Amino acid sequence: MTTDPSTPNNALNLAVLTRIADALERLAPPPTAASDVHAADGFIWDAAHGRLEPIAKINRIPIKLLQGIELQRRTLFENTERFALGLPANNALLWGARGMGKSSLVKAVHAEINVKHPGSLALIEIHREDLETLPKLLHILRDADRRSVVYCDDLSFDHSDNSYKSLKAVLEGGIEGRPESVLFYATSNRRHLMARDMIENERSTAINPSEAVEEKVSLSDRFGLWLGFHSCDQDTFFAMIEGYAQAFGINVPREQLHAEAREWSVTRGSRSGRVAWQYIQDLAGRHGKIVS
Q1: Are residues 133 and 205 in the same domain?
Q2: Phi, psi (rounded to 5 degrees) for 157
């Protein structure tokens, strides 16, 4: 038996179903726009919507102003340039003392590469809490016609965090693997990406202590390039201050500059590139200079 849509009940049901379908269509999220890796030089990975958000201006310091890390600067630049030129290169882990220029170096090297090889490289930041979506990001980048450095700042893991497994599979060992057009850089205060007390806890509570520790520690081994950053001495700290002051045209007698910088470092309880930059911000403000 066939249903006649012209009957009152069937017509009413059809109208109701049509309104429901229209309402569901309005409530459905719009389709995700394709991510264009040529839209900018820098992006932030929007994990919630599965897309790249272009950054109009990347917050960075010129590479020539990064003092006291000449070896790290040269090594990372050479590794990144090889990658930009289509040659083999290593994923890199920049680890060590706080405020010594790890993240600044990544951004500065990226800028310098694009000056030397215009448009060759995109920098994409992924937040640590979004690492589980890294395979989705790499799937988007796999077919892109531009090389990209995916960068995670302040990478570390706690006791209950299993997101390191997503990163571990991507760096090496996964079936699909890392695309040839993508390199992964990370910064961390910890050489092995996990706190010492976590390592000791794994050893003391696991049935097989060596295997339990090895699973997490082996993540850092999958970075082919390790660059260590260590606390700077007073001479290096002064060199940073003098470099900044000269670059931004702040004319202060050297003795006064050193005395003020020393006092500033004492109040902060440390000497580092970050502390030097914070002092220059204060000094530039007092002298009416724009620092950018």
Answers
A1: yes
A2: -135, 145
